[in-house]
Design brief:
- By secondary structure, the chain is an all-alpha fold.
- Helices cover 66% and strands 2% of the residues.
- The chain has 15 helices and two strands.
- It has helices at 2-17, 23-26, 42-47, 50-65, 68-77, 84-100, 103-118, 135-156, 162-178, 188-198, 206-215, 226-240, 245-251, 257-278, 283-292; strands at 121-123, 129-131.
- The chain has a two-stranded antiparallel ribbon.
- It is globular and about 55 Å long.
- The structure holds protoporphyrin IX containing FE.
- Protoporphyrin IX containing FE binds next to helix 5, helix 6, helix 7 and helix 8.
């Protein structure tokens, strides 16, 4: 009975997030650690926890979109509005592939996404021109990912020492640079300074409001029922609870401290436990470990 329930949950998780078991990506040359440090790295430990990536996802996206140029790019060019689930799956796939994929496959996916980005550009509603491959924008989007993921891991998995956090940021930095950034923070103190420098450039605008309404199920295009809307909004607020006070206030996702502590946090903790119980290890993590430690990776 429990096994049936577990299988059902794995099927649901895979339907929403993808399988991530491609042999040509996660298998490959024996001994190849890939781009993010390989077995024993913080990136492998943290990104191997699907629950963490799931909870962090919404927070990282909202942090990225607080930059009006990134928001305009997604607003004007993204397939998100048509197929949000596929878009979210592909973003999760990017994080997993660049972390656990063999070096060649991980580099290939970064190059592929760069080609997509080279076609993204335009003018923001306030008249400022933007292009996705602007190194400053790439740096901001890149940084939002390990920043949010690190905070989710600390809250829902285990505390990280400052040495571990620095190591994780350092492992992730080459991926940001390969993606087109000139510079990305590699330590927590660089991250804190960088975020402070970026803050004046971040804003809540009509496009971000539209995006928030869309993911909260409050849009005309993809409306959700009342219960689903309440569930989504609590998940959005719980995700943003990972981020600083100012970011919650800016996005209108701030909730009273008691609600965050006694309702939103515990609900996410339960979700994390259930995900870990159902799928303690993603196929790509096992396949990558087998590849990197020298045994041939088996298909899932
Ligand atoms: C390191 C930084 C970035 C990462 C890791 C990243 C990740 C991705 C990924 C994985 C895709 C492919 C999605 C798919 O195949 O469906 C993609 C596409 C796209 N990205 Fe980025 N991105 C970054 C920066 C940016 C920036 C700065 C902008 C906007 C200014 C942007 C806007 C877009 C758009 C409009 C697409 C087109 C595909 C779609 O959304 O449907 N990205 N990005």
């Amino acid at each position: 009975m429990l096994e049936l329930l577990r299988k059902r949950m794995v099927a649901d998780l895979e339907a929403a997030g993808g399988r991530h078991d491609e042999l040509d990506i996660y298998g490959g040359p024996a001994g190849d650690p890939g781009l993010a440090g390989g077995p024993g790295s913080l990136s492998w430990e943290i990104h191997g926890d699907l629950a963490t990536l799931g909870i962090a996802g919404t927070a990282t996206v909202l942090m990225e979109l607080l930059h009006p140029s990134v928001m305009a790019g997604v607003h004007d060019h993204s397939s998100f509005w048509v197929d949000p689930e596929r878009r979210a799956r592909n973003t999760l796939g990017y994080v997993l592939r660049t972390t656990f994929g063999n070096t060649q496959a991980a580099t290939r996916v970064i190059e592929h996404v760069k080609r997509i980005h080279s076609r993204v550009g335009g003018v923001r509603p306030d008249g400022v021109a933007y292009r996705a491959l602007d190194p400053e924008l790439i740096a901001w989007v890149h940084t939002s990912i390990p920043w949010g993921v690190m905070r989710a891991y600390e809250r829902y998995a285990r505390p990280l020492s400052s040495v571990e956090k620095d190591q994780y940021l350092r492992e992730q930095a080459p991926i940001g640079r390969l993606g087109g950034a000139d510079w990305v923070p590699e330590t927590v103190s660089e991250l804190d300074d960088y975020v402070e420098r970026m803050r004046p450039k971040l804003a809540m605008n009509a496009q971000l409001l539209r995006f928030l309404d869309f993911i909260a199920g409050r849009s005309v295009e993809l409306p959700a029922g009342r219960l689903e809307r309440a569930y989504r909004w609590s998940a959005i607020c719980a995700a943003m609870d990972l981020m600083p006070d100012w970011a919650r206030k800016l996005t209108g996702t701030d909730q009273p401290a008691a609600l965050r502590r006694f309702a939103l946090g515990p609900a996410e903790r339960w979700k994390a436990r259930i995900v870990r119980w159902a799928q303690p290890e993603l196929p790509c993590v096992r396949m990558a470990r087998e590849r990197a430690t020298g045994s041939a990776a088996r298909a899932a």
